[in-house]
């Protein structure tokens, strides 16, 4: 398989639509491949036992909380590389090296923290006796193995983020494909102990994921160090430098908080949903799964938008950056409108595929799931546009703004509105579906309104002419990290 990378030309000059799509579609494929990872694990663990599937499902939110911290810093590296690449400053390799070394240290710290905190975190969950005896011990086994190998996972995240910021996305897609194939092959071997391999069961799924991610990380690092794919990283670039670590920290902390707050909001929603019968809980879970699949194009284009905005602001082309956002928002609004129309008109086939034939309460689960999907479809276009605008804020280095609107849509609107509709207005399950949609629509409108002010159009890159200036030096100077107008 060839890892030759596409040219990054066209992001800062010429037509916008073609390079935007060229950048975005591999990112969508990467998201689909991540789904294949999860489906593969679920399939083989389901063949092992229902408790094994429950253990991994229970472990995921706790794992995501810690992963979101490191993911924020990898996003900071992507933002900085995008702007330095656009500015042609020659520092993209240095930024990549600083991101690699810093995130590696963060990953080691999170690995140790997660391993030690696994049992206390699981003990804090309000589990009933059956869950506590059957599922929590399996979840602990899975988490502790996973946390030990966390640096391998973060290595691949860093590779993808750095290449995305550089404007190259096909190589990460191909590396991800290799990783998924390896995972699908070794998953059953380690879970069930085929041949001379030990039967590791739930731990086998964690080991398989870490091996496949580790191989992907090794391939990614080889491409960065020994080929001309991506930014040019040298050994000297890996030595941490205070000024760059400070920038990565200031940019990455809001993004880490944004993802953590998102995870916590999902926990809060789940806390409210579990007060209803199992059919409602199941419908909420499968509805969220379908919505996440529908939003893969928006996620890919949103990630592409932050790269395009970053490179154009770095190149001193704020109007082109704004035009790219408008084009991306228009494209994704159209795509999500069509997707929402299909979801609203034909929801049952999509919902039914996730409900097994012998599932208890199948009819009720499908009915609730159909209703949820129809409600959610109303907000598809809004949520798609929000992904683009959030990507623009991040690409401009306005990670605090992205954090603010994530908190606003989830914690100021969705969670309180859902709570009110459920426990005060007593809408029943309809209050869940309505609360989700209201949060999506209000959050998107607020973010677009703020974006329209144009206060995000400043680069965070120091140019040759004003390398000593800071954000307080006036409009001609580059901001340090966050524009003061924010």
TrEMBL record:
It is found in: Cell membrane. The chain crosses the membrane at residues 20-39, 59-82, 94-117, 142-163, 175-194, 206-225, 263-284, 290-313, 325-346, 372-389, 401-425, 431-451. GO terms for molecular function: antiporter activity; xenobiotic transmembrane transporter activity. NCBIfam families: matE. Pfam families: MatE. It comes from Natrinema salsiterrestre. GO terms for cellular component: plasma membrane. Its main location: membrane. It is a multi-pass membrane protein. Residues 461-486 are annotated as: Disordered. PANTHER family: MULTIDRUG RESISTANCE PROTEIN NORM-RELATED, MULTIDRUG RESISTANCE PROTEIN YPNP-RELATED. This is MATE family efflux transporter. Keywords: Cell membrane, Membrane, Transmembrane, Transmembrane helix, Transport.
């Amino acid at each position: 398989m060839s890892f030759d990378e596409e040219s990054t030309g066209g992001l800062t000059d010429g037509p916008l639509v073609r390079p935007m799509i060229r950048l975005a579609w591999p990112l969508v494929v990467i998201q689909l491949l991540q789904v294949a990872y999860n489906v593969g694990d679920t399939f083989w663990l389901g063949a092992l036992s229902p408790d094994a599937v429950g253990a991994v499902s229970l472990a995921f939110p706790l794992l995501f909380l810690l992963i979101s911290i490191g993911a924020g810093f990898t996003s900071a590296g992507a933002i900085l590389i995008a702007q330095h690449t656009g500015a042609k400053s020659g520092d993209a390799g240095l930024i990549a090296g600083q991101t690699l070394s810093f995130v590696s240290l963060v990953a080691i710290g999170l690995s140790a923290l997660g391993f030690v905190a696994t049992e206390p975190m699981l003990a804090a969950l309000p589990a009933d006796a059956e869950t506590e005896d059957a599922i929590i011990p399996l979840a602990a086994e899975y988490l502790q193995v996973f946390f030990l190998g966390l640096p391998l996972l973060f290595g691949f995240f860093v590779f993808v983020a750095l290449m995305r910021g550089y404007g190259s996305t096909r190589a990460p897609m191909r590396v991800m494909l290799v990783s998924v194939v390896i995972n699908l092959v070794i998953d059953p071997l380690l879970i069930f102990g085929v041949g001379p391999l030990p039967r590791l069961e739930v731990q086998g799924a964690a080991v398989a994921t870490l091996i496949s991610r580790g191989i992907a990380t090794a391939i990614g690092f080889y491409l960065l160090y020994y080929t001309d794919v991506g930014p040019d990283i040298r050994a000297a670039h890996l030595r941490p430098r205070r000024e760059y670590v400070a920038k990565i920290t200031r940019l990455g902390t809001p993004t880490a908080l944004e993802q953590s707050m998102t995870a916590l909001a999902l926990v809060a929603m789940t806390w409210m949903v579990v007060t209803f019968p199992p059919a409602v809980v199941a419908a909420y879970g499968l509805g969220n799964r379908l919505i996440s699949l529908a939003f893969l194009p928006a996620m890919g284009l949103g990630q592409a938008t932050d790269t395009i905005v970053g490179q154009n602001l770095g190149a001193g082309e704020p109007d082109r950056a704004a035009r790219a956002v408008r084009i991306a928002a228009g494209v994704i609004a159209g795509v999500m409108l069509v997707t929402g129309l299909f979801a609203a008109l034909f929801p049952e086939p999509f919902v039914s595929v996730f409900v097994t034939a012998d599932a208890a309460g199948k009819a009720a689960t499908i009915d609730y799931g159909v209703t949820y999907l129809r409600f959610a479809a109303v907000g598809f276009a809004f949520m798609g546009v929000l992904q683009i605008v959030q990507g623009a804020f991040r690409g401009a280095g306005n990670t605090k703004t992205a954090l603010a609107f994530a908190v606003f849509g989830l914690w100021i609107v969705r969670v309180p509105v859902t709570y009110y509709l459920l426990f005060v207005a007593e809408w029943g399950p309809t209050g869940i579906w309505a609360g989700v949609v209201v949060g999506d629509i209000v959050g998107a409108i607020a973010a677009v309104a703020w974006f329209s002010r144009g206060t995000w159009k400043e680069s965070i890159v120091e140019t040759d002419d004003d390398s000593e200036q800071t954000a307080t030096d006036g409009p001609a100077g580059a901001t340090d990290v966050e524009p003061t107008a924010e």
